[in-house]
Amino acid sequence: MLKEFKDFIAKGNVMDMAVGIIIGAAFTAIVKSMVDDLINPIIGLFMGGADFTNNFIILGGDGASYDSLEAAREAGAAAFAYGAFIMAVINFLIIAFVVFQLVRAVNKAKDAAAEEEEVVEEAPAGPNELDVLMEIRDSLAK
Questions:
Q1: pLDDT tens readout for residues 20-31
Q2: Which of 102, 101, 105 is CA-nearest to residue 113?
Q3: Structural domain includes residue 19
Q4: Helices (H), the chain
Q5: How many domains does the chain have?
Q6: HSE of 55, CA atoms in CB hemisphere, 13 A
Q7: pLDDT digits over 97-137, tens only?
Q8: Contact between residue 22 and residue 45 where contact means Cβ atoms under 8 Å apart
Q9: Backbone φ and ψ of 79, nearest 5°
Q10: Residue 20 belongs to what domain range?
Q11: Residue 58 in contact with residue 78, Cβ under 8 Å?
Q12: pLDDT at residue 6 above 80?
């Protein structure tokens, strides 16, 4: 059983998947930083500083008032954090769009490489059948 597991791990597909997961995690950090540090501030500038993160409703009427969602959570209050959900949806849409653009660019590059390969493969390797037959005919005519 240990040998089978070792063979399974040594297969190319498993190693490719592991590399893909590691690169995906690193890429996620880059895209998250881009959204949080570059895109959201620009959107906030055009929307008048819109940040819905601190929009929440306290559930269970204990009458307490909190300045931020974090303060409510630290106090142990049950908070319906609809603003955090709205920001998560906006971030998801932005990240999905960025990933879509990246995949689109990679697919275009793959298509261009495939077209180059097709052009190279279509080049004749030597004389075609008609050329050979004409050469034989000319040799027999002499």
A1: 888 888 888 887
A2: 105
A3: yes
A4: 2-10, 12-34, 40-46, 69-74, 82-122, 129-141
A5: 1
A6: 10
A7: 878 888 899 889 988 888 877 766 565 567 788 888 888 99
A8: no
A9: -115, 130
A10: 1-49
A11: yes
A12: no
| The pair of three-digit structure tokens given for residue 142, joined into one six-digit string | 């002499």
40 — phi, psi (to 5°)? -60, -40
Length of the chain: 142
**Against a cut of 0.85, is the pTM above it?**
no
pLDDT score recorded for residue 87:
81
Q: Is the pLDDT of residue 49 over 70?
A: no
Tell me if 62 is assigned to some domain.
Answer: no
Tokens representing 23?
A: 């690169």
Whether 16 is in a domain gets the answer yes
Sequence-separated (6 or more) residues with CB below 8 Å from residue 57: 79, 80, 82
Question: What mean pLDDT is reported for the chain?
Answer: 80
In a domain, 40, yes or no: yes
For 35, the enclosing helix (H) or strand (E) is none
